[in-house]
Specification:
about 120 residues; elongated; single chain; about 0% strand; mainly alpha; about 55% helix
C-alpha cells in the first residue's frame, strides 16, 4: 500500500498490525552478554557514578571484551541452560495448546429427535 503523502515522494508501505503476544508464553532467555550485563551493571554504576545510559553500555561492552574465556564460559553456560529450559516450556505450551484444540474439535454428537423424551 502506498501513501501519497510521503514527503520524499517514495512509496511508503503501511505496517501490518502487530500480533498480540500470548500472555502464557514463556519469556525468551537472556543471551550470555545480557546475563553478564545484569550482573555487572550495578558495579559499573557504582564505579562511574551518574553517567548516561550510553556510557554505561559502552563500559559493559568494553568489560565483556576483556574478560577471559573462562569467565565468559560461566555466562555462556547459564545462557544455554536458560535456553534449554525456555525450549522445554515452549514445547509444553505448544503441546498443551494442541491438546486443547484437538479436544475442542472433537465433540460428542447429540441425538436430535422431533419427539419429546420419554418420562
Amino acid at each position: 500500500y502506498q501513501n501519497e503523502n510521503s514527503p520524499s515522494g517514495a512509496p511508503k508501505l503501511s505496517r501490518k498490525h502487530n500480533m498480540v503476544k500470548d500472555p502464557l508464553a514463556p519469556k525468551q532467555p537472556l543471551s550470555s552478554y545480557m546475563e553478564f550485563s545484569v550482573k555487572e551493571r550495578p558495579k559499573v554504576l557504582a564505579e562511574l557514578g551518574n553517567v548516561s545510559l550510553g556510557d554505561v553500555g559502552k563500559e559493559l561492552g568494553r568489560r565483556w571484551q576483556v574478560i577471559s574465556k573462562e569467565e565468559k564460559e560461566v555466562f555462556v553456560t547459564k545462557s544455554k541452560e536458560n535456553r534449554a529450559n525456555y525450549e522445554q516450556e515452549k514445547d509444553k505450551l505448544a503441546s498443551k495448546r494442541l491438546t486443547e484444540q484437538s479436544s475442542a474439535s472433537i465433540s460428542t454428537p447429540t441425538l436430535v429427535t422431533s419427539e419429546p423424551a420419554p418420562q
